[in-house]
């Protein structure tokens, strides 16, 4: 029994014993290096963010996907001296959205507000340290 998803609809395919006994006629297609949906890492060769990268853990989809994309895009494109310091509003909107879905986005700490501020501060501090190290 196979189930495949087709744009919001499920299709059930029954496979018989005979189906499994015959060799597959499926053909493998060579990977297209320009396909942005292939696993090419977080940043695509053209500099765009690969929203389908498994490294994002699915954060770009789901009920807070748009807020995540906005915050992450802002951080990625930030030219501030402390990278991302101009993205506080976007990160706050993302955190507020995530707090509405605690089952999908569990908080590290019981004090949600404290942990989100710690996360933002750690992110900004890490970026600043990385930039200082790279500029020396």
Automatic annotation (TrEMBL):
InterPro entries: CHCH, CHCHD4. Residues 102-136 are annotated as: Disordered. It holds the Pfam family CHCH. The keyword Protein transport applies. GO terms for biological process: mitochondrial respiratory chain complex assembly; protein import into mitochondrial intermembrane space. Its main location: mitochondrion. It is found in: Mitochondrion intermembrane space. GO terms for molecular function: protein-disulfide reductase activity. One of its GO terms (cellular component) is mitochondrial intermembrane space. Keywords: Disulfide bond, Mitochondrion, Oxidoreductase, Protein transport, Redox-active center, Translocation, Transport. Coiled coil: none annotated. Residues 64-100 form the CHCH domain. Gene3D superfamilies: 1.10.287.2900. This is MIA40 protein.
